[in-house]
Design brief:
alpha/beta; TIM Barrel; two-stranded antiparallel sheet; 32% helix; binds the ligand O=C(O)c1ccccc1N[C@@H]1O[C@H](COP(=O)(O)O)[C@@H](O)[C@H]1O; N-(5'-phosphoribosyl)anthranilate isomerase; EC 5.3.1.24; isomerase; aromatic amino acid biosynthesis; Aldolase_TIM
């Protein structure tokens, strides 16, 4: 199976072009103001105009108001919503748009419970737990906590970069990997070489193992 790749936290049109040219299956835009990767709906709309056909655009939110998500959806043609906070299953399902739920992992039961509670999601994203931040920490977690039984597609995130993603894919065999900080030169600024190395590594493992 080919492991899908999402490059998240894009803030510049050139980074959309670099990511999709390198073979990204999805890009992510952060609609969470405290993040250094935050984009306004107007700039997100402009960024998405550079996304080619058959590549999807995901909008990342952290504990947003209903009104804010609806306002973003009115202005920005998103294919998928990514909820990275403490949103309930009912909240996530209320927008009529496909969505994934992020879970910050401290123990296996965090993932098992999320699979049970968020079963209407299109996928479950697993990320490192941090006491102060909801994500984008650049920290990996103990991948052996991830159970083999996965009722939904599993997306692996957290501290991935070109030097650890092949090991991650071999060990976890996720549906997709999601990276932000590991392909940046500074916060919110992607690096074309890091993106290309990252995606090539994923494809290399897919083809060889
Ligand atoms: O990128 C952010 O600033 C962010 C803020 C709040 C929640 C999630 C955020 N990013 C997502 O976190 C994971 C892991 O990121 P990293 O590769 O460790 O930097 C990923 O899905 C990011 O999109």
């Amino acid at each position: 199976m080919r492991t899908r790749v999402k490059i998240c936290g894009i803030t510049r049109k050139q980074d959309v072009v670099d990511a999709t040219t390198a073979g990204a299956d999805a890009i992510g835009l952060v609609f969470y103001e405290p993040s250094p990767r935050y984009v306004t709906p107007a700039s997100a709309r402009e960024l998405i105009s550079a996304v080619p056909p058959f590549v999807s655009a995901t909008g990342l939110f952290v504990n947003p108001d209903v009104e804010y998500v609806n306002e973003v959806l009115k202005q920005v043609p998103l294919d998928l919503l990514q909820f990275h906070g403490d949103e309930t299953p009912a909240f996530c399902s209320s927008f009529g748009v496909r969505w994934i739920k992020a879970v910050r992992v401290r123990q296996s039961s965090d993932i098992e419970n999320a699979f049970r509670d968020y079963r209407k999601a299109s996928g479950l994203l697993v990320d490192a737990w941090d006491p102060d931040r909801y994500g984008g920490t650049g920290q990996a977690f103990n991948w052996s906590l991830i159970p083999d039984y996965r009722p939904l597609p599993l997306i692996l995130a957290g501290g991935l970069a070109s030097d650890n993603v092949s090991g991650a894919v071999k060990q976890v065999r996720p549906w997709a990997v999601d990276v932000s900080g590991g392909v940046e030169s500074s916060k919110g600024i992607k690096d074309v070489e890091k993106i290309t190395d990252f995606i090539n590594e994923v494809h290399r493992v897919d083809e060889t193992d």
